[in-house]
Amino acid sequence: MAKPPIENLPIIDISPFLDPECPAALQDLAARDIGYACQQYGFFYVKGHGIPNEKLDQIIALAREFFSLPMEEKEKIKRYDAGGPEGGDGARGYQGMGENITDGKRDVQEAVDFYREWGEDSDAEKNGPPFKTLHGPNLWPEKPEVIKPVYLDYIEKVKAIGKILVRAMGMALELPPSMEGATQESEDREIFVRNTDRCFWVMRLIGYPPLENQVGSREEGDIEEFSCGAHTDYGCLTLLLSDPTPSALQVQLRDGTWMNADPIKGAFVINIGDMIERWTNGVWKSTRHRVIHRGNNYRVSVPFFFEPNFDAVVKPLGECVQMTGGESLYEKTTYGKHLLGKVFGNFI
Ligand SMILES: O=C(O)CCC(=O)C(=O)O
Ligand SMILES: [Fe+2]
């Protein structure tokens, strides 16, 4: 028997960071709550972020509308391998049901991925096809017609929330204040802000039909089909928006048990990814989670992955190494190298 949930994830109000008049002490308190949530769960809810509910509902409704279109419409933005004449870059576009693999199994989901475009960083996407991996342009659906402008506006808003959160995380770790002349790698409290100033974000629209396998308990091992298999997110921060379907997303607690992280109207579910675990030398762990959607409806979610800059150097911070006994547990890497490894390995 699965254990009943015994805890709830913290709900953190980040409005003190949106108000320039807000006393610093209130920001410190919110930052401390974020630090506690990162340490204890790696997951929390965020409210008070300033994006109105109507906008959030529209994001989900447009994704749902896209998934309800005929396959031939969806395949107009099909994802193709990099280097080919179809103009794919191996990462952007639509993936049909069962194409995504987690932990060696096919996930029962369809999805569309968008990434930061290189823009001023490189003119690769203007020169192709063929495109190198990750270097193509985003493939925007023709329908629903408003999807592109509405989502582009949303991306700017959600990036601003990501910036607030990584700033608060530097405060929560009590890193030293930033000094003039700080470099990308200076280990002060702005380190996550600087290393996400060209955030190589990913936004994924996911559609989940109900799982057919209705039998069996929810203990790991008895489950044959997953909507999304157990995994950690590989970057910095995930800001998850989903429709109201309960009992779908589950988070693994430190004792190994799984807890539902049901949606709360108007709030994002936030979790930290592998790059934050690496920067903090494991003081904050990137938490495993999975989706098991056995309801009768078609579930839609839109995670936004607020990631480091492609060239960000990620290595354990000296302060965190000291906190964990003096040994650095992770190699130095760049986010781009880590991401390319994930793309080539189908995110396993
Ligand atoms: O759909 C969800 O609730 C979560 C999806 C997820 O964990 C992911 O795409 O990384
Ligand atoms: Fe995830």
Strand content: 15-25%
What is the spatial order of strands in the main beta sheet? Answer: 1-2-12-9-14-7-6-3
Q: Class, according to the CATH hierarchy?
A: Mainly Beta
- Ions, cofactors, ligands: which are bound? 2-oxoglutaric acid, fe (ii) ion
Helix content: 25-40%
CATH-defined topology: Jelly Rolls
Number of helices: 9
Query: For the record, what is the CATH homologous superfamily label?
Result: B-lactam Antibiotic, Isopenicillin N Synthase, Chain
Rg result: 20 Å
- Uncertain spans, ≥5 residues at pLDDT below 50? none
Class computed from helices, strands and strand pairing: alpha+beta
Order of helices and strands: EHEHHEEEEHHHEEEEEEHEEEHEH
CATH architectural grouping: Sandwich
Mean pLDDT: 92
Distance between the termini: 29 Å
How many domains in all?
1
Envelope shape: globular
How would you sum up the major sheet?
A: 8 strands, mixed
Report the strand count: 16
